[in-house]
Design brief:
The chain is mainly alpha-helical. The protein has 5 helices and 2 strands; from the N terminus they run ααββααα. β1 and β2 form a beta hairpin.
C-alpha cells in the first residue's frame, strides 16, 4: 500500500511535534482532530455530507461524530484503528469513478495520509 509509508511518516511527525517545554506525551487527540482532520472534512466532504448544509449523500453526514459512527447507506464510515475496513478510507483511495470521494477532486496524498493516521489512532473526535 503506497500510502502506508506516508501514514507512518505522518504519525512520526505528529509524535515529533513535541515542543521542548512539554513532556513527551504531547499528542493531543482533540488538537490533532481540530487542526488536521476537521479542516479536511470541512473543505472536502461537508459540501455533500453535512447535516448543516442539508446534504446527506449516501445517507452519510460527517459534520458530527455521530454521523460517521452511524454512517450512511453502507454502515459506519470509519472503523477506528482499521483503515482496511473503513469505507471512508476505501472511498478516498478508490480509482473507480463511481466510488472515489470526493468525486471531482481526489484528495492529495498528504490529506489521505492524515485521514489514515486519524483512523489508525482510533479516530478521535471530540465533537458531541
Amino acid at each position: 500500500m503506497k500510502y502506508g509509508l506516508l501514514s507512518l511518516l505522518v504519525i512520526g511527525l505528529v509524535s515529533a511535534t513535541v515542543s521542548e517545554d512539554k513532556p513527551a506525551a504531547a499528542y493531543e487527540p482533540t488538537h490533532f482532530f481540530r487542526t488536521q482532520i476537521l479542516p479536511i472534512l470541512k473543505t472536502r466532504c461537508f459540501e455533500c455530507h453535512s447535516e448543516a448544509e442539508g446534504q446527506d449523500d449516501g445517507g452519510l453526514v460527517l459534520d458530527s461524530k455521530a454521523g460517521w459512527i452511524e454512517g450512511g447507506d453502507h454502515g459506519p464510515a470509519v472503523v477506528p484503528k482499521n483503515i482496511g475496513k473503513s469505507p471512508l478510507i476505501r472511498a478516498i483511495l478508490s480509482h473507480d469513478p463511481g466510488t472515489v470521494m470526493p468525486p471531482d477532486d481526489p484528495l492529495p496524498p498528504l490529506e489521505i495520509a492524515l485521514l489514515q493516521t486519524w483512523v489508525l489512532l482510533g479516530a478521535p473526535d471530540p465533537r458531541e
